[in-house]
Fold Tetratricopeptide repeat-containing protein.
Amino acid sequence: MPGRHHNAIDAARRAAHIIASHGGPEGDLATAQAAFETLRTITAEHPDEPELTRVAVCGAVRLAAAGRSGNDIATVRRAHAFLGTLAESRPDNPLPRRAYAEASVDLISAEAQRHGLSAALDVYRRVTLLGEANSDDAELAAIRAKAAANLVALALEADRPLDARRALADLARLEAEQPAALMVRQQHARGVFNRLAHAARRAPPGEARAALDALIDAVHRTPGHLEIAEFAAEGAFTLVTGLGTRGHLAAAREAYDALGDLSRLPESGRGATGRLADAAFNLITDLCQSGDLAAAQLIYDELAGLSVAHDQDPAIRLAQAKGAANLALSHQHAGDSAAAGVIADDLRALLLAHPDDAGLFQIAAFLDEATD
């Protein structure tokens, strides 16, 4: 009867301990696999013992970790399949199905790397079916959402945009089905960010901007959720950088302005402000390279104001200093020594206010040497 198989439970725990002991790089994978077979046999002999189920899940998770550590995908698959069997045979117990879903997340990435996206999609479809059969399990939905968010990036890297769009559609459905599950919404935002990061490097500006707008919408749908605000800020920074590097300067400026709006939201925190400073420096660099020094000056003035408002933030000070050096040199090369001198004076004043900042000192020294 359940709860009375003490000897079996003790044997299962010993097997799980052996698996854990041999799960690292210095362990013996064959020993871990043998212990796992013992654990699997014990579990099959006592299917109604809940403690054995818990130990079996723990052992399978550790075997999967051992397989990943040993770069042995067959072992990872074995552990994953066992967790799937446990989930199917114990439908009233959420632990096996959640562990199976987590193992699926890892296996999806491993299959994509070793055998291509189609193999990863096979794993994804199985965990999706399990999720649909347990649609009231919010924690399982969050794990499914993590798998879908990963799949967006994997599909785009494999040049399979249709599969990426399907994964994004799955994320949207999961959020609609679990509106109170913040982890689902957060993973949806991560999936959209993955789409944005790819689009910033390769797609037309409008496609990348649509992804940013979706992230901004998520911020407004979930006020006070710092992680989603951070995804949006990171997405805007990524868009400024990617589009600016590719020469889409007007679109990069629009993304920069959107990042400025995000940084002023109460839920954005200091991270968004730091990314705004970094984006300003990158945009100044791109504008200087394009020869549009007037536009670069406007961005620099905004960055200098941000630095004054956050005088105790060394990262923002450093961004201003780097921006000042780039802009001063660009003015100098354009033959406008007066404008270059004004910017250089800004940098010297910044250094005087923070004489112990080694980063500022190095940039000021570089500028002095470059303009001698």
Notes: Residues 85 and 96 are 9 Å apart (CA to CA). The first helix runs from residue 6 to 21. The two ends are 88 Å apart (CA to CA).
